[in-house]
Amino acid sequence: MGKVLIVGGGAAGMAAAIAAAGCGHEVHIYEKNEKLGKKLFITGKGRCNVTNDCGVEELLERVVTNSRFLYSSFYGFTSQDMKAMLERNGCPLKTERGGRVFPVSDKSSDVIAALSRQMRELGVKAHLRCRVKELIVEEQRCRGLSLAEGGEKVFGDSVIVATGGLSYEATGSTGDGYEFARQQGHKVTHLLPALVPFNVKEHEVKDLQGLSLRNVEAAVRDGRKELFREFGELLFTHFGVSGPVILSASSFVAKVLRKKTLTLTIDLKPALDREQLDARIRRDFEEEANRQFKNALGRLYPSKLIPVMVVRSGIPPEKKVNEITREERRQLVEATKDFTLTLTGLRGFNEAIITQGGIAVKEILPGTMESRLVKDLYFAGEVLDLDAVTGGYNLQIAWSTGWAAGSHIPF
């Protein structure tokens, strides 16, 4: 039996603790916050989308960065394994649209309580309000850690760093793990906010603030090159755009957007091609023949969107519907199928769900999460250069990599 020291009591840290303690090790978690799972508590707007109810191959397909690295850990601890562990510990689950798994209670606190219950049963010791200042490494072996308060040194047989990324700094995600890694010679790739809203150039979005559009198709382009396309839900904000489809897009285009502006094209009626949409507009116009154009669009768009679409169509708002030409109708079709915005940048880490970038995975053993540079030092979770789209996949990365680290500590 070895003594395992875990830095960070979030999702990856708790999974690692349960796995290591389950193997018979003495496990200690050092958490800078006053409680474990502080970021977990606010995920999914407090509901906690714990994983996705899908097979391993689909999990891998939804990973944006370094999916191949996760092959061993995803097969070693699957989403089904995670579900079983939570339900075994008193947290019943339900599966919603898109395979998203939530606690039946819709309370993230129940997820944390279930994990805490399992850790207590296994004898895991949690040291709260304990900030780790640095790792103790001797002769390329990690021997322990040094605490910030009083400089106390704690020695053990293995150390697992599961400190999270830079998103939601208020939960303690301040990038400590990246510095620990750098100090031991590890490369940390460029860090960017991910699963985050976009800023846009056009001022008209302020008029659309709060408008949510379902069943639209969004595409992001760099000139003629398409970087992303997906069907889903979009939300306008005072600064730009957000919503599930936009958050997913941010993970695919963040690196390019750092260097240049990009174009977001929204198809407001993806179920209809241009001919079908024109026929639909003609039918609506026939019934509204004597009304002004600006008052004849209620069946086609939400009321908040109508003034913007009137401007974008180029059709005079006071014009009678029965006077609108075929060419003007074509302009309205194009404005609907090709609602274009200019993306100028990402919002900050404080609005990001996760961090893109992290410790270079080529320096980590994929089966065990052990450092290739320092023996008995392991990394797990968001601190690594791994990220996925929304839907519970990022938490599964944390569970699986944490489990891989905790279950491969040598005796």
Which features does this protein show?
21 strands; 30% helix; alpha+beta; 6-stranded antiparallel β-barrel; 411 residues
Overview of this structure, please?
By secondary structure, the protein is an alpha+beta fold. The protein contains twelve helices and 21 strands. The chain has helices at 11-22, 38-42, 56-61, 71-76, 79-88, 108-121, 176-183, 244-257, 274-287, 306-313, 326-337, 393-407; strands spanning 3-7, 26-31, 51-52, 63-65, 93-95, 100-103, 125-128, 132-138, 141-147, 153-155, 158-161, 192-194, 198-200, 212-222, 225-236, 240-242, 262-267, 339-346, 354-356, 377-379, 387-388. The strands form six sheets. It has a six-stranded antiparallel barrel with strand order 13-16-15-14-17-18. The longest helix is centred in the last third of the chain and has 15 residues, at 393-407. The relative contact order is 0.20.
Show the helix and strand layout.
Blueprint: E1 3-7, H1 11-22, E2 26-31, H2 38-42, E3 51-52, H3 56-61, E4 63-65, H4 71-76, H5 79-88, E5 93-95, E6 100-103, H6 108-121, E7 125-128, E8 132-138, E9 141-147, E10 153-155, E11 158-161, H7 176-183, E12 192-194, E13 198-200, E14 212-222, E15 225-236, E16 240-242, H8 244-257, E17 262-267, H9 274-287, H10 306-313, H11 326-337, E18 339-346, E19 354-356, E20 377-379, E21 387-388, H12 393-407
Parallel strand pairs: 1-2, 1-11, 2-7, 11-20
Antiparallel strand pairs: 3-6, 4-21, 5-6, 8-9, 9-10, 12-19, 13-16, 13-18, 14-15, 14-17, 15-16, 17-18
Helix pairs in contact: 1-6, 1-12, 9-11, 10-11
